[in-house]
Amino acid sequence: AKSSDDQQICLYDKGMDDTIRKRRQLVDELRLAIQGDQLELHYQVQMNVPNETVAGYEALVRWNHPTKGMLPPNVFIPLAEQTGLIVMLGEWVLRTACHEAASWSSGLPVSVNLSPAQLTTPNFVEQVQDILLESGLAPQRLELEVTETTFIADQKKAISVLERLKALGISISVDDFGTGYSSLAMLRAFPFDKIKLDKSLIDDIDNNYKSKGVFRAVLSLGDALSVPILAEGVENKEQLAFLLEHGCQLVQGYYYGKPEPFSAPGKVTFVEPDK
Ligand code: C2E
Ligand code: CA
Ligand code: CA
Ligand code: CA
Fold first, then answer.
1. What is the pLDDT of residues 172-184, one digit of tens each?
2. What is the share, in percent, of the chain residues with pLDDT greater than 70?
3. Which of 152, 148, 142 has the alpha carbon at shortest distance from 172?
4. d(Cα 262, Cα 150) in Å, to the nearest integer?
5. What is the pTM of this model?
6. Mean pLDDT throughout 216-225?
7. Which of 75, 139, 158, 264 is the most exposed place for a label (fewest CB within 10 A)?
8. Interaxial angle between packed helices 2-35 and 73-83, expressed in degrees from 0 to 180 and rounded to the nearest 10
9. Which domain of life is it from (predicted)?
10. Cα dihedral 136, 119, 43, 71 sign
11. Is the CB of 93 under 6 A from ligand 1?
């Protein structure tokens, strides 16, 4: 029995080594990817449904890995956050999104996701200001998306940074509202311009009366706070009909379009879906 135990421990250790080694390699590759030319932004349309107009686009980062192909952010964003690489990655995303959006002929706003560590980076506001200046993007066209995690570490600092960003003309959205990452206390404490309802809230709205109830309640909350609400992850007509019936006008989801690269600078590739 003893020898087989030893063997198991041995195998286990080797597995650990492998995991750590692979992780370390991925971190090294990610650093090169950020500095090199391997990251790209895809954009997902946000619709104002009653007007049938495009309200803006959310920038979502992808890693075009030399051997593994196009990697989605859930594969590398957590790693970037754990290793501090997120500060460099986030700056790349912000700069690229501002430069690309500045070239859109539509003049529509762009939404950029912020990780908690970015907001508390020294001189973050100055960095944003510099990027706006160099890209020529009007601050009114930039929206920054934050989650509650952003405020846990240093609430005072986070509030002051947000207020300075807002003073520049940038708007702030609460992302993933309705998950553990955004709460009512947060809504009370911070001046937001938009609430984005997480996909999980809409997922089973078709066949679950409780989900419908929660959704209606959140919409009236937005109403009470005079903050527009955007529903994320809308995939079908039934969900859309429910949202419209309850006065939710802003929608983002596969129903209207998946995130995709802009084929050429300034060229909006968004196509109206079949009604
Ligand atoms: P998120 O900010 O909540 O972005 C929405 C995610 O939902 C995107 O996944 C989008 O492709 C997906 N989605 C949108 N509509 C639908 C739908 O109708 N059905 C389904 N099944 N999915 C839909 P993506 O691009 O894989 O991004 C995942 C997460 O990674 C984002 O969630 C965000 O938290 C993070 N992320 C992406 N880009 C960045 C970035 O530049 N910086 C930071 N810090 N985080 C990012
Ligand atoms: Ca987002
Ligand atoms: Ca979200
Ligand atoms: Ca999410």
1. 999 999 887 667 8
2. 89
3. 142
4. 29
5. 0.91
6. 90
7. 264
8. 90
9. Bacteria
10. positive
11. yes
Q: Average pLDDT of 207-222?
A: 87
230 sits in which H/E element: strand 229-232
**Burial class for 256, CB neighbours closer than 10 Å (0-12, 13-18, 19+):** buried
How many other CB atoms sit within 10 Å of the CB of residue 146? 27
DSSP 42: E
Q: Are 136 and 142 in contact (CB under 8 A)?
A: no
Residue 221 near residue 247, CB atoms below 8 Å: no
Q: Is the CB of 72 inside a 6 Å radius of any atom of ligand 1?
A: yes
The tokens 């049938």 sit on which residue?
A: 52
Tell the residue number behind the tokens 């650093």, with chain if given: 31
ipTM summary value: 0.98
Q: Return the best residue to mutate from 113, 142, 235 for the ligand 1 pocket (most ligand atoms within 8 A of CB).
A: 113
Q: What is the CA radius of gyration of the chain?
A: 21
Q: Does the Cβ of 116 fall within 6 Å of ligand 1?
A: no
**pLDDT tens, residue by residue, 116-164:** 899 989 999 999 999 999 999 999 999 999 987 877 778 888 889 999 9
- Is 230 close to ligand 1, i.e. is its CB under 6 Å away? no
Strand partners, 56: 46
Q: For residue 86, give the ligand nearest its CA.
A: 1
**pLDDT at site 6:** 52
- The structure tokens listed for 66 are 């030399």
Ligand nearest to the CA of 144: 2
Residue ranges near ligand 4 (ion) with Cβ within 5 Å: 176
Q: What is the pLDDT of residues 79-103, one digit of tens each?
A: 999 999 999 999 999 999 999 999 9
Helix (H) or strand (E) holding 64: strand 53-65
CB-CB neighbours of 113 under 10 Å: 22
Q: Check if the beta carbon of residue 175 is closer than 8 Å to that of residue 145.
A: yes
What are the structure tokens assigned to 186, written together? 């947060």
